[in-house]
Specification:
alpha/beta
Amino acid sequence: MSTSNTDAPSLSRVTRPAPKRLRILIVDGDETSLEKARQALQTVLTAKLKYAATAAAASALVASERFELVVVDAAVTGGFALLKEIKDRHRWVATLVVSDDQSPSFMRQIVKCQIDGLLFRPLSREEFVEQVMLLAFAVSARRKRQQKRVLAIGAHPDDVEIGCGGALAKHHAAGDLLHILTLSRGSAGGDINVRTVEARHAASLLGAELHMGTLVDTRITDGRETVALIEEVIRQMQPTHVYTHCNEDTHQDHRAVHAATLVAAHDVPNVYCYQSPSATVDFKPQRFVDITDFIGAKLQAIDVYGSQTERMAALEPDAIVSTARYWGRFAGQILAEPLRVVRQSDSEDGRAFDKAGLGRVSLRKQA
């Protein structure tokens, strides 16, 4: 960030936006079969194709990129395990199996994989393309209907990781779409280049897309320039959930961001305020998110901010865990993040999300 004021504050998107075309992964170890699939789908302008010859390669791709559909040749070694893994870990990915085998034993195995579609050879090119696009469009539409779009707003790098990093990690595990907006680059707390790199790394660990503003650290106001930056990201992603600073805070930037967020996010159905180390005793949360299974992810994201952890005792792992344990007293002896509710429309789903843990309630069943 430049430390000089500008008439029009800028906003940069640090990570690449998600692609808009339907992304389809073809998994087939037979080159001839792969080529036929490629030829059949290459003229579909709304689809973007990728290919994998092995189940291991496909697993790595699905873990690192977004796909609407994975098409698996049943003859691929490890194919059944891949299909089960996709259903267990990737809520928004449909699976289609293509096979020559119509035996009862095969059908019993494939049913256990909870696939979304099944095609038997021989099949026509038209039949293949129709089924592929039908499933890809269906999961894309379902994603838009059900997936939470979460925006976490902070005045400085590391604010959202400290305040709601566990909740963000939990949203990511649930398959929700995450964006982080950091309004300044934290020049008052260190080198802005270092802090920008740290923010980028932390966002990546949490599975979030990062936006960074260029407001001046310690001089953020609740005026039009701050509201405009927040409104721009809200316009881009249309969030269903917003997390921001609380007003009960001794840091003037935090209070300003809180006020500006309430103006910019007036149409967002779910708005919550998180606790910063500078929050006062007047902070009175009504919502407690169980982050017991995500405390490790939160600590990892905070640890990325080496320029800050060396100078702030509040960022020591013991302090982070102790704070989570304290708030967990109010929610059933768990590790929790506290939130003050400004507005909440998904009460039932929100309560289920708050209580869910990896070992207790499957996050994939939310929505």
